[in-house]
Amino acid sequence: MSLLDFDWGLIWENRQALINGMWTALSVSTVALVISTVVGLLLAVLRNGPKAVSWIAVVYINVFRGVPALVSVIWVYFGLSLVLGISFSVFQAGVIALSMLYSAFLAEIFRSALTAVPHGHTEAGWALGMRTSQIFFSVTLPQAIKIALPNIGSMYIGMVKDTSTFTVIGLLEVVRVTQNLVATTFQPFVLYTAAAIIYVIAAFAIDLIFRLVEGVYVRPPKALLGRAIRARQRRTIEKIVASTKANSLATAQLFVK
Amino acid sequence: MSREIENMHTPQSTTPQGPIVQLRGLHKSFGQTEVLHGIDLDIQRGEHVVLFGPSGSGKSTVLRSINLLEDPTKGSLKVDGVEYGPGLAGETGVTRGTKLQLRRKVGMVFQQFNLFPHLCALDNVALPQRKAQGKSKSDAREHAAEALRKVGLLERAGHYPSELSGGQQQRVAIARALALDPDVILFDEPTSALDPELVGEVLKSMREVAETGMTIVVVTHEFGFAREIGDLNVFMEDGRIVESGPRGFYDNCTTDRAKEFLKAVK
Questions:
Q1: Alpha-carbon gap, residue B221 to B193, rounded angstroms
Q2: Do B149 and A240 touch (CB under 8 A)?
Q3: How far apart are CA B218 and CA B225, in angstroms?
Q4: pLDDT tens sequence across A23-73
Q5: CB atoms near residue A199 (< 10 Å)
Q6: When you count CB atoms within 10 A of the terminal residue's CB, does the N or C end of chain A come out lower?
Q7: A21 closest CA partner among A187, A178, A184
Q8: Is the separation of the CB atoms in A226 and A215 below 8 Å?
Q9: Which chain A residues have any C-beta within 8 angstroms of a chain B C-beta?
Q10: Dist CA A124 CA A108 (whole Å)
Q11: Inter-chain touch A127–B180, beta carbons under 8 Å
């Protein structure tokens, strides 16, 4: 049996269903990414904090890093919903499950990124009369985000792939869609190849987006996007420099007279 | 001649007479190890103080104590009337200021510059003014541009730290401290991390700051510079002040240890 004996046309015929599946996977992952970024950052700060509270973060991180996505989503959809008396939609259950796991991973990423910012910058902030919170948001965090970005991108790709396990609760993501199509066409090889391709394309797209965002954080601004964003600031600074120069010249002339 | 002009200069003072910085019985321990064993030091307004001594003598710790990067374990320090620290044994009834209050009276320049790499030179100078003094962004930037002009770096306002030489970075750091209008500026070995050929431009900026009548405390190994600006010269060893003296101290010190040290570094 050669490769050409398979019905590859099926992929094109079912393209809309597959794309919809990827759209669902991306939606779940994106919402979960936003939640895990916030929670992960909080956990990282907690983890770096005093011992009295840091152990909470340590326990959370070590527990949830170890739970597989498949177990987590079943636990949320069939367990947590019963305990809390809330019936989650499959979408909600997926978001909660992913957020729980990836908050732990992102906490570690943020912790190492925050630690990588030299302590001298915090000391400089103190010496300049800034509050610790002001230093965190204006000095440490912007630098830490830049350091963390590539790893956050990898985590995002991991999330998209982990949504494939949510087929067990019936979320219509790529694998579920593929299974449904296989059930009617009996062409698993063709359709799972399509699924693999669509995951790889998504990973490439995410990588590209994160590279662009990373470019914005590069100093001095190099990439096109970074330069475009900084153009207004550059003009403002040039204006201030010019007026300061003019003022000092005027003062100097006043003295000469 | 220039020395006379410098001495004639009387900085404006709004507070009563007396030292602008006062350390009284300052002790500092890290865990079980005590590194400062009771430092007493009065610094007058407009005075230029040089702290020197062998490494590990505690001179940097004294400097870092003045803006509370190191918390005093015993004793106290007072800057422009704001007192901080546990105080002397048995002392009561002293109003203590907050760390922030005290720090906002003191500027500091570090050996490693510590510019914020994600901000351009102008915003490095402007950021602390916005956060510590609540200035608007445009006010802070205008004031920052003026400070950069004073250190001769106005043209580099839009450059990021990675685009500046070490000497230029240190001058931005000086402008950043200066722009907050502190009562005292501390320099912690400001030229030690620089290429030899870049030391001169930083010393020049420091000299210009000194000439405005700013109170300065500097830890340095540049003895030529120390001789030139030091109104009060303090020799430290093993966490104690061994000896201190006015101008000319480097040729007239009396303790054997200070003589020995100065001979070794010459």
A1: 12
A2: no
A3: 10
A4: 999 999 999 999 999 999 999 999 998 999 999 999 999 999 999 999 999
A5: 19
A6: C
A7: A178
A8: yes
A9: 118, 120-121, 123-131, 134, 138-139, 142-143, 146, 217, 219-220, 233-234, 236-238, 240-241, 243-245, 248
A10: 26
A11: no
Query: How far is residue A191's CA from residue A178's CA, in Å, rounded to a whole number?
Result: 6
Cβ contact B201:B225 at 8 Å: no
Q: Alpha-carbon torsion B164, B168, B170, B172, what sign?
A: negative
Instruction: Find tokens 């103190």 and name the residue.
Output: A126
SS3 A250: helix
Burial A44-67 (b: 16+ CB within 10 A, else e): bbbbeeeeeeeeebeebbeebeee
- Output the CA–CA distances (angstroms, integers) from residue A1 to A5, A185, A190, A220, B226, in the order listed: 6, 18, 14, 57, 88
pLDDT tens over chain B, length 266 residues? 344 444 444 444 444 578 999 999 999 999 999 999 999 999 999 999 999 999 989 999 999 999 999 999 999 999 998 899 888 877 776 778 899 999 999 999 999 999 999 999 999 999 999 999 999 999 999 999 999 999 999 999 999 999 999 999 999 999 999 999 999 999 999 999 999 999 999 999 999 999 999 999 999 999 999 999 999 999 999 999 999 999 989 988 899 999 999 988 87
B135 contact partners, CB below 8 Å, separation of at least 6: B129, B143
CA-to-CA distance for B150 and B145, rounded, in angstroms?
9
Q: Which of A240, A249, A251 would you mutate first to test chain B, the one with the most B CBs within 10 A?
A: A240
ipTM of the complex: 0.89
Between B69, B154, B163, which is nearest A220 by CB?
A: B163
The answer to whether B180 contacts A123, with C-beta atoms less than 8 Å apart, is no
Instruction: Pick the residue from chain B with its C-alpha nearest to A125.
Output: B128
Count CB-CB contacts under 10 A for residue A168.
Answer: 15
Residues B193 and A141 sit within 8 Å (Cβ to Cβ): no
Distance CA A248, CA B70 (A): 39
**CA–CA gap between residue A84 and residue A76 (Å, rounded):** 10
Cα gap B233→B41, rounded to integer Å: 11
Report the C-alpha dihedral over residues A69, A75, A78, A84, rounded to 10 degrees: -130
